[in-house]
Every structure is written in structure tokens, then in C-alpha cells.
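Here is an idea for our session: we take a single protein and study its fold together. To get us started, please write out a protein record for me. Start from the sequence, derive the C-alpha cells from it, and show both lines together. Go ahead whenever you are ready, and we will take it from there:
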Amino acid sequence: MRHTGGVPTDPDVPAADVPGPGPAALEVVRGDITRLEVDAIVNAANPSLLGGGGVDGAIHRAAGPELLAHCRTLGGCEVGDAKVTPGFRLPARWVIHTVGPVWRGGGHGEAELLASCYRTSLARADEIGARSVAFPAISTGVYGYPPEDAARVAVTTLRSTPTAVERVLLVAFDDRTGAAYRSALGEHRGPR
């Protein structure tokens, strides 16, 4: 791993200069999203926003009990939407909570709902002035979205969404997710 701005990045994936409306750089990062020093991290939350397993539980544990107390005031979140809280004890100043779709075979609007998670999270990042944002692989855990399909949706959406965010980290917790992100980035390196 090499380090860029205090964040370990995947040595096999150079930071991509992304012309057009999306962020200036998309990078694959292997590691723990709760330790990243970015303006905002995205939480793959459940609709209650009250914590759970996977990345959601890890973020709640790392942020401390203040995050749960704050989330209780938000009234939950719809699939495809996003809400913002302070990061509390996290290195990131903000947490953007988004609720991804449960995979039901791909014929129930899952791709559009997942794309909405990324678009809406970028919109929330713009609202709070975040210039660096780390995304987990939304919906690929207990919600069952195939990592390869989810990575393509993530990269395509992030590259095509107008934003003031300059740097997006795609955080891979395991090798399969990292490979899926690298593949999706490779598919999108050519002309737009």
C-alpha cells in the first residue's frame, strides 16, 4: 500500500483524473472506513439509522454513543436517500447515512435505488462542504447485492454526478470488493 494524504491506497489503481461532472479523483482503498481521515464517510445504514451489523455497526461503535443518540432524532431514512450527522469520535467530521436496496435478483429497481444512494450522498456532501468522501460497498453485505454489479453502479454514478467533491475513496473491506472496484474503474477509463 502507498499512502496518499494519510490514506492507504491500492497500488494497482492510480488515482483517476476524472474529467466532467464527477469528483476529480476516484481511488480504491483497502481497509477500515472508520479510520480514514476524510471530510465525510458514508454509512451503509439500515432504514432505522440506529446501527446494525457490518459497516453500520462498525461506524456506530467507532463514533460512540453520541451517534446513536443523534440518529434517534432523524426519524429513519428511506432506501436511496441519505441523511447527515456529525462524526463525533471518528476522524471524519461527518457521517452520511444512506440506505441501499436489498438484492432481489436485479429486476426490482435495485440498480436505480443503489445509484440514488451515491447521487444523494454526493448531494449531502456538497451541502456540508465536504471535499473528500469515503464510500463503503453499499448493499453488498447482508443486503446481498453482488459486489461486481454494485461496483459498476458506484463507479458509473460517481463519475456522472455533478459535485464539488474532489476526492472519492471506494473502500474495500475484502479482496473481492477491491477486485470489483478495480474492474469497474478499468471499464470506465476510456472516453466518456
Notes: The mean pLDDT is 89. The helical segments are 54-63, 65-71, 110-128, 147-160, 175-187. The longest helix spans residues 110-128.
